[in-house]
Amino acid sequence: MTIYYSLTFLLLAAEMVTFCVVVAPLPYAVRKRLFRFLSESAIVAKIAYALKISFISVAILFADALQRMFRITAESDMAKQSGHASDVRSETNFAARKFYAQRNTYLTGFCLFLSLILTRTFYIVLDLIHTQDEYAKLKQQVSGESRDKIAANGDQTKLIEELKTKLAATQAKERDYDILKKQANQQAAEYDRLATEHNAAIGAKSDKRVD
């Protein structure tokens, strides 16, 4: 394996390890710190820029390996049809070349495919973390509003109880006032009756003295 395909294999292995770390069931706090570091670190940004250039090179290698695989396959078919690949050495040579071409194609193709999957998975998990943060903030806000409503309802209940108490006291005073008013009316009526009887009695005595 040549040096650039060896580097491609190492890049593929690094992608596999990174993908396992990204999708691993980590605690929420650890995952949040990890993704915040990966998304905000300047060093990681430089590494990501270098990897983009590397993936461009891998894409060129993929196109070259794919073209070579098709060419070797076509040469192998032509050799079989013409009878030049009838001996074991020629067949082994074509089979080895075809194997290496397919290996390089699959290696570079999987490297590119996994890079796309890894990038998309990273941003999906990052959006999930942001969504969980927003949900936690919204939940705290709703809890705070609920507590305020409960406190406000408690104040309103207390005010209603005070008003009910004052209303009951006022009604009791009105009942007492009505009772006193009735008693005063009764006493006034009784006084008027007694006064009338008294005046009548005095008037009768005066008439007797005149006679």
Automatic annotation (TrEMBL):
The keyword Ion transport does not apply. Residues 160-208 form the Bap31/Bap29 cytoplasmic coiled-coil domain. InterPro entries: BAP29/BAP31, BAP29/BAP31_N, Bap31/Bap29_C. It is a multi-pass membrane protein. GO terms for cellular component: endoplasmic reticulum membrane. GO terms for biological process: endoplasmic reticulum to Golgi vesicle-mediated transport; intracellular protein transport; protein localization to endoplasmic reticulum exit site. It holds the Pfam family Bap31. Keywords: Coiled coil, Endoplasmic reticulum, ER-Golgi transport, Membrane, Protein transport, Receptor, Transmembrane, Transmembrane helix, Transport. The keyword Ribosomal protein does not apply. It is found in: Endoplasmic reticulum membrane. Residues 1-137 form the BAP29/BAP31 transmembrane domain. The chain crosses the membrane at residues 6-30, 42-63, 106-129. Belongs to the BCAP29/BCAP31 family. May play a role in anterograde transport of membrane proteins from the endoplasmic reticulum to the Golgi. This is Endoplasmic reticulum transmembrane protein. It comes from Rickenella mellea.
